[in-house]
Amino acid sequence: MASTPTPQTPRLTQRAPLSCVPCSLKKVKCNKRMPCSTCIRKGEASQCRRENVYLTGGRQRHASFPNLHYEEVVAENFRLRAALSQSQGVFPHATPSAETPAGTSAAFVPDSTLLDYLSELFNAVCDSGHPNSVFSPQDIHLPSRELSDRMLAHAGAETTWHHFAIHYPTFMDEHDQFWRWCSNGGEHADYDPHWLAIYFSLLAEVLYLKLDDWWPQDTDAAGSEAMLHIQNWFDAAIFLLQKADFIRAPDIRCVQAIAILGDVFIVLGHRSCFFNLWPVAIRTAQMLGIDREENLAKHPPLEAELYRRLWWSLVIGDWYLAGVGGVIPARAEPDPRPMQYQLALIEGAKIYYEFQQMLRAGKWMENDAVALVARTDEKIAKLIAQLPAFLRADGDEVTEDDEFRYPWMEQQRSNICYTLLDGQIAFFSTLTSLGPAEANARSRARSVCVATSRTILQLALQGRDDRIKNW
Fold it and tell me: Closest Cα to residue 132, out of 221, 236, 225?
C-alpha cells in the first residue's frame, strides 16, 4: 500500500511534533526515538524521520536530525580532533619513539612505501601523451552522420555507465539538432562549444572502449588510424572546453565533458591533464551546487537525479578528495541495471575516504591502527556481501542469456573486482612497517598485499584485454 505523501511546504504549529512521520500517518504509537522501535520492527528504519515544521513566532525548527551510525560518530570525532590540532599548530601524526617498552604498542606511522612505488611506476607509464593536434576548428575530424549515429547508439547501450554524465535520450535529440544545423549549411566551428565538447568526448570514449567493433585490427595501419582519431577527438574536446572558457565561466556541460573524458585521459598518456582537469570539474560542480540537495531541489526531478549521478562519478574518480558530500542517487530496480555498479563504487569510495581521513586525523597507536584496518576490511567484506549477484566475482547466478541481454555486465563485474582488490592493498599496506609488538599483524598485512597482488595479475592475464582497458 502506497504511503500518503508528506506536504511540500512545512505547516505552522505551536508545538513541534515528536512522533515520526510514518507513525503519525498510520496513527500508531511512537516511542519518539530516531529511528523509533515501530519503524525498526517494520523494517522501515531508513524512512523514520520527524516532520519539518514552522513554529509560530518566527522561529523555524528542523525536528529531523541525521541518523549517524557508530562508525560515523567516531569518524566525526577524529575530524574534529584534526581540526583542533591544526588550529593549535600541533602536527597530527605521531612519531615513533625509540624508548617504547617491549611488548607495548608503539606510536603508529603509516607506511606508504608500496603505494609510493606504485605511483612512480604509474607516472612513468601514463605520462607519455601525444602532442596536441587541434589548434583551430579546421583541425577537428568530424565523422560522417552515419558513423556518428552508429557510434552514439553503441555508446548508449554499452559505455555511458562509465560516467553517468548525460541523459542519453536528451543528448540524442540534441545530436539530431546538430546534424540538422550542419545539413542546413551551418559549420561545426560556429556551433555551441559546450555541447561539442561533450560530443567529441563521447566519440573518443566509445572508439577507445569498443575499438575492435569499429576498426579492423588485422593490420597495424588500421590500429594507428583509429588511435589518431581518438587522439584528435580528445584534443578537440579539450580545445572546445577552452573555447567555452570553462575556467572562468562555470557550466555544467563542461563538467559533463570532463567526466566523460575520465576513461580517456590515462589511456592516452595524459595523467597530468587528468589531475589538472578533474579537480576543476569538482570545484565547478560545487560552485554550481550539484553536491547539495537544497540546490538540486530547484531542478526538475530527472535533472536533479542526473546531477546526483554526475557528482558521484566525480567523487569516485578522485582519490584525493578531502571530503565526500551529497545525496546518494536513487536505488535502481531489482533487475540488473548499470546504476547498481555506480552505487557499489560510491559505497567503496566512502569507505576509502573515511579510512584516509581517520588515518590522518590525529595520534594513533599501532594496536589502534590495526583495529582500524580490520574494521575497514570488515566494511569491504560487508559491501561485497551486499553486491548484486551479477557484480560478484563468482557470478554463479548469472546465465549466458543474462550476459547476452546485458553486454556491460561482465565488464562491470571485472571493474568492481579490480577496484576492491586494489583498495585492499591500499588499506593493508599501511601496516607493513609495524613494530615488534604487532609482528603478527605486520606479517598478515604483508601476506594480504602479496596474495592480493598475485590475484590481480592472474585475473589480468586470464581475462580479455578489453575488460581492463579503462581500469
Answer: 236
Q: Are 241 and 254 in contact (CB under 8 A)?
A: yes
Burial class (CB in 10 A: 0-12, 13-18, 19+), 456: middle
* pLDDT of 422 higher than 70: yes
The candidate with the shortest Cα–Cα distance to 355, out of 71, 68, 66, is 71
Residue 343: name the closest of 355, 327, 320, 360 by CA: 327
* Burial zone of 16 (CB within 10 Å; 0-12 exposed, 13-18 middle, 19+ buried): middle
pLDDT at position 269 over 90: no
Average pLDDT over residues 419-448: 84
> CB pairs under 8 A, 24+ apart, for 65-71?
65/34, 67/34, 67/35, 71/354, 71/375, 71/379
Domains of the chain, start order: 12-61 (4.10.240), 70-125+332-467 (no CATH), 136-317 (no CATH)
Are 315 and 349 in contact by the 8 Å Cβ rule? The answer is yes
C-alpha cell of residue 292: 547539495
Could you give the CA distance from residue 272 to residue 125 in angstroms, rounded to a whole number?
A: 12
Q: What is the pLDDT, as a whole number, of residue 192?
A: 92
